[in-house]
Design brief:
With 137 residues, the protein is α+β, with helices and mostly antiparallel strands. It is built from two helices and six strands. Strand 1 and strand 2 form a beta hairpin. The longest helix has 19 residues. It is globular and about 40 Å long. It starts with 15 loop residues before the first strand and ends in a 9-residue tail after the last strand.
Length: 137
């Protein structure tokens, strides 16, 4: 049991779907045609550059969006969590390439430490679900 927390039994709600649920959170939650992605990092192999880490984060977002029936073009809002705000110009270059030609979501960037200091950037996203066959990315 987590100290200071009371764990309640999971309540099944017919309109809520949780994706990749672990002991503390779900990687995504879907409700009323909206998808809420938790902070995604570029987990896996070590990254040789900040650009590579950014691309890995965006690939993970793509993977989750695809898994839940959404797409990059359906992103509504993104929060960029970054350990050093002076790295935003580098992030923005990768971002521009990733969203080239796509509708741009609302976005905010915040400087914050990461739980795991090996990571420098994460993205939290809100997207709409996309009707089958309507994806364009």
């Amino acid at each position: 049991m987590l100290e200071g927390y009371v764990l309640l039994p999971e309540i099944q709600h017919p309109d809520i779907r949780r994706i990749e649920t672990g002991p503390l959170m779900s990687q995504a939650t879907i409700c009323n045609g909206m998808a809420f992605l938790s902070g995604q990092i570029g987990a896996g192999a070590p990254h040789d550059s900040f650009d590579a880490e950014c691309r890995a984060v965006m690939a993970r977002v793509d993977q989750l969006l695809s898994e839940i029936g959404s797409a990059r073009s359906a992103l509504l809002h993104v929060t960029v969590h970054i350990t050093d705000i002076s790295m935003m110009p580098q992030f923005n270059e990768v971002w521009r390439h990733w969203l080239d030609g796509m509708p741009l979501p609302a976005r905010v960037a915040v400087q914050t430490p990461m739980v795991d200091p090996d990571f420098r950037v994460a993205m939290t996203c809100v997207a709409s679900l996309v009707p089958q066959g309507a994806r364009n990315d």
